[in-house]
UniProtKB/TrEMBL annotation:
It comes from Aquamicrobium aerolatum DSM 21857. This is Uncharacterized membrane-anchored protein. The keyword Transmembrane applies. The chain crosses the membrane at residues 6-27. InterPro entries: GDYXXLXY. Keywords: Membrane, Transmembrane, Transmembrane helix.
Length: 193
């Protein structure tokens, strides 16, 4: 039992720890948005029958499914169902959409990214073998929150129009969503704080 005279200081200490944790999370996200490299990805629907779940939309990207032919360490490609980290090197094509050009399991690619390239960190799940042609990669940016009631409109138009997501990637490969676009028109922008 905590003595009554210590109750207030303990409560203040716990509150400060909780606030400090929240500030740490927000500051980390804001740091990526301020100083990372911006890339543009083509949005692809994951499941056109059930995209909206509450106030967010589940999305896939043109980099969500990468060919195993771009893996530099293919001898280590087989997996028995364990999750693995994968680093994917991206480069913009002529239309400004960033495409995967190389990938590596469990470690950064051996050569530094050239000017106009960026390495993004993701995770693979499930089993695959040396005969697998594509692997699915999650980057932590597959869930996009929308203002309440506006998700249905995006859901209806996702297959019909060209939606793009601007994503910021930091030096460690972590990604954060920056803004959501319908063609060249920005629909939503994530606030830094």
């Amino acid at each position: 039992m905590i003595p009554r005279r210590l109750l207030l200081p303990v409560a203040v200490g716990v509150a400060l720890l909780q606030i400090g944790f929240l500030v740490f999370m927000i500051a980390g996200r804001a740091s990526i948005l301020r100083s990372g490299t911006e890339v543009t990805l083509q949005v692809e629907p994951v499941d056109p029958r059930d995209l909206l779940r509450g106030d967010y939309v589940v999305l896939g990207y043109n980099i969500s499914r990468i060919p195993t032919s771009i893996l530099i360490n293919q001898e280590d490609a087989a997996s028995n169902g364990e999750d693995r980290v994968v680093f994917v090197r991206l480069r913009a094509d002529e239309s400004g959409i960033w495409q995967p050009v190389a990938a590596s399991y469990d470690a950064h690619l051996p050569e530094e990214a050239a000017t106009g390239e960026v390495d993004i960190k993701g995770a693979t799940h499930g089993s695959w073998s040396a005969t697998t042609e594509f692997i699915d990669v999650d980057y932590g940016i597959e869930r996009f929150y929308v203002p309440e009631g506006e998700g249905r409109e995006i859901e209806r138009n996702l297959n019909a129009r060209s939606f793009r997501m601007k994503v910021v990637v930091d030096a460690n490969g972590s990604a954060q969503i920056k803004s959501f676009h319908d063609g060249e028109t920005m629909l939503y922008e994530e606030p830094i704080y």
